[in-house]
Records
---
Amino acid sequence: MKNIIHFLLLTLTTGISTSLYATDNKHHLGEGLHDKKCISCHNSSVYSRDDRMVKTMSALKSQVNNCMKGAAKAEWTQPETTSVVDFLNDRYYKF
Ligand code: HEC
């Protein structure tokens, strides 16, 4: 039993440290798309200001979709859109 717990702990901590280590590169797609299409009207301070509008993950998804289709006229695929949502969430919103 003890061995199993040790094994689980080891696997868990290795998984966590690997993903922490990878965060720097994980978002190159979302960050690149964002930086190409999304900083002409607002810069990233809208995501971190005190009175920001977006308060939930689902609001973030729909705001990104609205700005992407309407304001930015970008035609991103679903995975591309998701990568931008994930980038904004991990970097700024942290839901
Ligand atoms: C044509 C201008 C324009 C472009 C381009 C644009 N946006 Fe926006 N965006 C806005 C406006 C206007 C607001 C509302 C700002 C405010 O309330 O001060 C906004 C707000 C937002 C917010 C909410 C910020 C908050 O308060 O929490 C997010 C998230 C966002 N935009 C994401 C994006 C993304 C992602 C892109 C690229 C696909 C993008 N925007 C491109 C005009 C734009």
---
Amino acid sequence: MRLIIAIAIYLTIGGPCETHAQTNIQLEALKRLKDLDIESNPSLKKVVLNILESTKGKPAFVEIIRDFNLKGYEAELIRFAQANPNKSEGVEAMRLALTKKGLNLISTYIKNIENKNVEDTILALANTLDPKAEPTLLTILKDGEKPFSTRKISVTGLAKTKSGAMALMKAAETNQLDNKLHFVVGNALRSVRWKTISEKAAKLFPPPQGLGQKLPTLAKLIQMKGNIANGEKVFFRPTSACATCHQINGQGIDFGPKLSGIGTKLGKEALYLSVLEPSAGISFGYEAWLLKLTNGSEVLGIITSRTNKEITITAPGGISTTYKIRDIKSTTKLPNSIMPPGLQATMSPQELVDMVSYLHSLKQAKN
Ligand code: HEC
């Protein structure tokens, strides 16, 4: 069967690809060959490299490098990641580029403030959730010459992995962070899912004052009147974090359920409960999974596709990654929602009421 496909590729090729359709046929055929060792088959290797050349700058370029385990393409991969730092294929490209050579290229590149893609480079790096990216992220974080926005991206990236969060905590405890970063680091570390870290962070970085007022009972909350326009602002402001996981009418990141028409699905009580007790009723298909990989790292997210060879998991932030079953040690469905509890602590009781009134007013998606 494989032989037939290989012959089919040879036939379709004949020379460089001329039409779009021809490229697609070749890519489809290539996908079927991805487990073959091309090093022991020079003519197949030539074909693969030919096709690779014609896919530069496209997602297929990254897939071919990954599937055939091609080496030496760090510079191209980094360039691709810089152009697509928030897309799954861009992040995959960065992950593949995290070799010794690639890391050297990255650190030379980001040293130069003049380079215009520094922020995108760090963003792609932060999205990899790969321990190999942590030293570079820490360097950026401690570099007072770098713009605040770039340093903030490093903070959020580090806080997504346990080893990164621990490194951040250590930097904070040993006074290696300048004051400017305290708020962002506090916010990031207080909401990590590792209890020892979040508890320590709550002491080291107490949450902002004025929002810790006691909440009225649920029955009272439901009766309170809310200001819808202000509720929209509360939902979308960064401290609430809602829009980092939910989209409303196209705004925000597509990770958890879209909330554009949520007012038709959930009444006020259910809306309050969704925020105050996210794990009480977890929406079907949005359960949290923890994958432990054979290389020792862990990934938390929603499983968005599963075959007998691969699992695709989408992490908070919306980045999807596909892992081979043989690289996964275990998959565990977690009892709790990925939506963190306690987000109401970032708003006053009245702001919570405003936000729920806003969500309740969303009866259908606007186009
Ligand atoms: C880290 C990601 C994350 C953040 C931050 C987050 N959510 Fe969620 N949310 C989810 C996921 C995942 C679900 C689906 C699982 C569940 O039902 O718990 C969900 C479910 C919901 C639901 C129920 C949706 C349904 O269709 O039943 C509502 C309402 C909601 N979130 C509102 C909010 C609001 C308001 C905020 C901000 C205060 C927020 N979320 C912050 C991830 C998040």
